[in-house]
């Protein structure tokens, strides 16, 4: 089997984390499969960039070909087939919306969400290409995997696919999140964080709805002085134009720091207009933290009833932020959140994905 590992290049956001953890979990299973599983990855990169942290026995293969050039070709025709640029394989998995055409290999494609269809005004031209590339892959018979059952239902309905063509493979959470401890005073000082804070972790993608969250936080503080500061972490932590009273920005955080920042927050807030899964939500629950999410199906699914949901408008988010002040956060509540999150494992993601590979393999 061949997986597209391009999302693993550079700093990894949600899809990069999904791809890296999926590859690692599949590799662990391959080690005990007596040679039954042969795992390779490829990257669409003109410079042929190497991935430094691949698991043992996972090979990186393929010619140095830029992703943009490949997509331009695939928008118009089934050329070049994946075998021409990455070698022979039985199953090829496009982990990031794009499934390459093949000569003989069977196709699997991960559709993380339908933002490119449902919120087209919020995405880049490259993402809009999915409106052409996804239907082409489906017409060739690609099997779809999704990060949540909510997205599986949306995809089946949008593309009129039978039940057997779409499989939900819910994402996982690294066990390290369960063990994360809050920052001590010295590390809070190093990162410029107060003792009490709300937390947003994410990118500046318009669908993340960050401007509405910032405006809602400002309005909530005008209503109630006890609303904690809002900390922006990840790419959003370097956003321009959001500085102001009660707003802290950390920039990009290494994994160890991020886990501790999440573990110490009063609550995590994810106000997205749309999500396919919402990794920060399950990671915060694994730390035992309360979460406030926008009322979209995937986030309600991942929250499992342990989330507080609100309308993603400024007014809805303001009400949600004020309601967070009354959310119980004793050890019994934290234990329940951790127990829910513990069911989400990357091993389960890999097992479900491997079932798909075996079902479609020639």
From TrEMBL:
<dbReference type="Pfam" id="PF13439">
    <property type="entry name" value="Glyco_transf_4"/>
</dbReference>
<dbReference type="GO" id="GO:0009103">
    <property type="term" value="P:lipopolysaccharide biosynthetic process"/>
</dbReference>
<feature type="domain" description="Glycosyltransferase subfamily 4-like N-terminal">
    <location>
        <begin position="14"/>
        <end position="176"/>
    </location>
</feature>
<dbReference type="GO" id="GO:0016757">
    <property type="term" value="F:glycosyltransferase activity"/>
</dbReference>
<keyword id="KW-0808">Transferase</keyword>
<protein>
    <submittedName>
        <fullName>Glycosyltransferase family 4 protein</fullName>
    </submittedName>
</protein>
<keyword id="KW-0328">Glycosyltransferase</keyword>
<dbReference type="Pfam" id="PF13692">
    <property type="entry name" value="Glyco_trans_1_4"/>
</dbReference>
<dbReference type="InterPro" id="IPR028098">
    <property type="entry name" value="Glyco_trans_4-like_N"/>
</dbReference>
């Amino acid at each position: 089997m061949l997986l597209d590992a391009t999302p693993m290049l550079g700093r990894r956001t949600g899809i990069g984390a999904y791809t890296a953890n999926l590859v690692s979990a599949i590799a662990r299973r391959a080690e005990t499969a007596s040679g039954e599983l042969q795992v390779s990855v490829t990257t669409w990169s003109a410079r042929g960039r190497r991935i430094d942290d691949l698991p043992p026995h996972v090979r990186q293969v393929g010619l140095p070909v830029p992703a943009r050039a490949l997509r331009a070709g695939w928008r118009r025709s089934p050329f070049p087939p994946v075998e021409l640029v990455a070698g022979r394989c039985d199953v090829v998995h496009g982990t990031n919306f794009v499934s390459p055409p093949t000569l003989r290999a069977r196709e699997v494609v991960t559709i993380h969400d339908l933002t490119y269809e449902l919120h087209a005004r919020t995405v880049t031209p490259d993402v809009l290409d999915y409106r052409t590339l996804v239907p082409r892959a489906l017409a060739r018979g690609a099997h779809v995997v999704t990060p949540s059952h909510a997205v599986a239902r949306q995809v089946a309905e949008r593309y009129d696919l039978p039940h057997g063509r779409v499989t939900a493979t819910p994402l996982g959470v690294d066990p390290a999140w369960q063990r994360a401890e809050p920052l001590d005073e010295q590390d809070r000082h190093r990162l410029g964080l107060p003792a009490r804070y709300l937390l947003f972790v994410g990118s500046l993608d318009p669908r993340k709805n960050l401007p509405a969250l910032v405006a809602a936080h400002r309005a909530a503080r005008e209503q109630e002085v006890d609303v904690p500061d809002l900390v922006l972490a990840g790419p959003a932590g370097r956003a321009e134009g959001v500085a102001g009273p009660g707003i802290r920005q950390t920039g990009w955080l290494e994994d160890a720091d991020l886990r501790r920042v999440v573990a110490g927050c009063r609550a995590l807030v994810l106000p997205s207009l749309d999500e396919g899964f919402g990794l920060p939500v399950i990671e915060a629950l694994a730390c035992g933290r309360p979460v406030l999410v926008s009322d979209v199906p995937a986030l309600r699914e991942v929250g499992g009833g342990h989330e507080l949901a609100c309308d993603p408008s400024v007014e809805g988010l303001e009400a949600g932020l004020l309601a967070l002040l009354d959310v119980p956060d004793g050890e019994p509540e934290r234990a329940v959140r951790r127990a829910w999150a513990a069911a989400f494992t990357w091993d389960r993601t890999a097992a479900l994905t491997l079932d798909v590979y075996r079902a479609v393999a020639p």
